[in-house]
Design brief:
six-stranded antiparallel beta sheet, 6 strands, 50% helix, elongated, disordered N terminus
């Protein structure tokens, strides 16, 4: 969000093509080329309204999207310090680079890296102040950094997935799914469970060989929660066997033949996993029930 705000300011400034907003910095333009004060003030007011309006909207959106408060007064103080301080272009460029570096360090911290800012600054100064820098040194360092951060990112992802898997909602959903499958096993001798954990009942036998990856098919299906609430359905969906579906649904299609139908109980690990699918109100590790019928197979009509 911050990057987009600063990009907006830069784009707005370039669009106006201004070097001064009537602030008295006449050294950048000859006196006879200066825009009249009244017009200059109008330009500055319009620019301030435009930039401030867009920034204000982005700050509001940021707060709404993250559910985190954003200190607007602190933001304004930082903006004023940057605009009012009379510093060289090199100093301001350093501040700009510092903002980018700070953002990178924050991302590293969020992945668990113990960032030593003094160490980072010490090493950066060594190369910034050097008369010359070997390109290979920087490139090798970049490769090493990316290699280490890839592993750090992987470990951070694994920790986050483990945290989600141990959340009360995920634990509850897994237990509910396991209880349902155990109940169905006891009640229905036709229920089968594959090696992956997919439970299913073939409710209508089809004809021919089981479907193969790559075949284009027309499918009627209904997707339900354990409580019976429907979250997705279609009377004639065009699909491809082996397509990009949740693993349990992909496996379900491979168990059917043309014209067959079945009910499939897909454990959370074979559905949307610990992330769930909030847009469909599917919780973490939630078991899903799909009633599927193969209406036709391309080439077999």
């Amino acid at each position: 969000m911050k990057k987009s705000i600063f990009a907006l300011c830069a784009a707005a400034a370039l669009g106006c093509g201004l070097t001064s907003c009537g602030s008295g910095e006449k050294s950048e333009a000859a006196a006879d080329t200066l825009v009249a004060k009244e017009v200059s003030d109008s330009v500055c007011t319009a620019y301030g309204t435009m930039a401030g309006g867009y920034i204000g909207m982005e700050l509001k959106q940021y707060a709404e999207q993250t559910n985190e408060p954003y200190d607007r007064e602190e933001f304004v103080r930082g903006l004023e310090a940057f605009l009012n301080e009379d510093r060289s272009e090199a100093y301001l460029a350093g501040m700009s680079s510092g903002m980018r570096v700070r953002s990178d360090l924050k991302s590293m911290q969020e992945m668990g890296v113990q960032v030593d800012r003094e160490l980072v600054m010490q090493v950066m100064k060594k190369y910034i102040l050097a008369d010359s820098v070997d390109t290979k040194v920087a490139q090798d360092a970049q490769n090493k950094y990316q290699e280490i951060m890839a592993e750090v990112s992987k470990q951070a992802h694994e920790r986050e997935q483990a945290r989600k898997a141990n959340s009360p909602e995920a634990v509850k959903n897994r237990k509910s799914g396991e209880a349902l499958i155990n109940k169905l096993k006891a009640e229905n001798p036709n229920l089968k469970v594959s090696d992956s954990g997919l439970a299913y009942v073939i409710t209508k036998e089809g004809n021919g060989q089981k479907l193969e990856n790559g075949q284009q098919i027309k499918v009627k299906y209904v997707g339900k929660h354990i409580d019976g609430k429907v979250f997705d359905s279609s009377d004639d969906a065009n699909m491809m066997v082996g397509g990009q579906y949740v693993p349990g649904f992909t496996e379900a299609l491979s168990l059917l033949t043309p014209g067959a139908a079945g009910t499939f109980y897909i454990p959370g690990k074979l559905a949307y996993g610990v992330d769930g699918a909030p847009q469909a109100e599917i919780g973490p590790d939630e078991l899903l029930i799909f009633e599927v019928e193969i209406l036709s197979v391309q080439g077999n009509e």
